[in-house]
């Protein structure tokens, strides 16, 4: 939704998200909804945006690594069948290695799926193209939208943070991530049509909160690909802050060549070039999240 003469046009926010008259996500009308209770003290954050190319996986990888630099134990869960977070950390999945596919299908537990210390303090539950098949295979499975939550609740007590990299679609995989999560971090690129798809995402978050996961909240909105030389970037940032208000992080992620190079070397930016502006930005983002007391 856009208005003439502006970059963004916002839906009306209520609670943490939007008013919506749509039916609850993935729940029949006669089903009794029991919200999952969490017993682990860690925080599970999904990084989600149905629009591709917004810096979602870059953020999932580098926020995870940056939190580790603050002596936090972090698990990164790759829920995208494209497995970019997996390859971006230099992991090549061997045949016997468990992935998020086996985790969701109940074929293997987290201990058999996670790879320890892919970066200092960072463990990874990798993905593979097989995960795309879970969309079909889980259709007839009971509690299909809670499979990830059940596994993470059972096995992630040792971590301070669990970061989930969602696919760029509002799918059953994304729904599993949202049901499992305490909050959602939304990357928003500083480009034209910046809020394209965000309205739909916020409506989905609102429906998930209403019917499946009442604890779900917006962790924050992260402005990515910011270029201070362009008036457009500044205009998008200004209008996004006017819409989302205090939900927008003070930290912005700039366009940075080193950020683009790091995945090709299979390394987080804090390992690849810790002094570059991209690394420093993600370190500041981690500090901002930690300063919120979560």
From TrEMBL:
Q: Report the InterPro entries cross-referenced here.
A: AAA_dom, DNA_Partitioning_ATPase, P-loop_NTPase
Residue ranges constituting the AAA domain according to the UniProt record: 43-218
- SUPFAM superfamilies referenced in this protein's UniProt entry, alphabetically: P-loop containing nucleoside triphosphate hydrolases
A Pfam family of this chain: AAA_31
Q: What is this protein called?
A: ParA family protein
């Amino acid at each position: 939704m856009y208005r003439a003469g502006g970059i963004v046009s916002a839906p009306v926010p209520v609670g943490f998200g939007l008013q919506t008259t749509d039916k609850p996500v993935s729940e029949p009308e006669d089903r009794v909804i029991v919200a999952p209770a969490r017993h682990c003290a860690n925080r599970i954050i999904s990084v989600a945006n149905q629009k591709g190319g917004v810096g979602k996986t870059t953020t999932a990888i580098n926020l995870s690594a940056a939190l580790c630099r603050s002596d936090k134990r972090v698990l990164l869960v790759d829920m995208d069948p494209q497995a970019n977070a997996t390859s971006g950390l230099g992991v090549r999945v061997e045949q016997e290695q468990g992935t998020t596919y086996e985790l969701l299908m109940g074929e293997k537990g987290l201990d058999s799926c996670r790879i320890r210390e892919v970066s200092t303090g960072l463990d990874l539950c990798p993905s593979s193209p097989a995960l795309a098949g879970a969309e079909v295979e889980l259709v007839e499975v009971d509690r299909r939208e809670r499979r990830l939550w059940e596994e993470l609740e059972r096995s992630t007590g040792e971590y301070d943070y669990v970061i989930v990299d969602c696919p760029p679609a509002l799918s059953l995989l994304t729904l599993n991530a949202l049901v499992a999560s305490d909050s959602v971090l939304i990357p928003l690129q500083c480009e034209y049509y910046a809020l394209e798809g965000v309205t739909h995402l916020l409506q989905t978050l609102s429906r998930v909160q209403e019917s499946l996961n009442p604890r779900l909240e917006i962790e924050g909105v992260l402005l990515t690909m910011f270029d201070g030389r362009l008036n457009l970037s500044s205009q998008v940032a200004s209008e996004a802050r006017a819409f989302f208000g205090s939900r927008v992080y003070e930290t912005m992620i700039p366009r940075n060549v080193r950020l683009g190079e790091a995945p090709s070397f299979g390394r987080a930016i804090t390992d690849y070039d810790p002094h570059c502006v991209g690394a420093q930005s993600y370190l500041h983002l981690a500090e901002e999240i930690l300063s919120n007391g979560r």
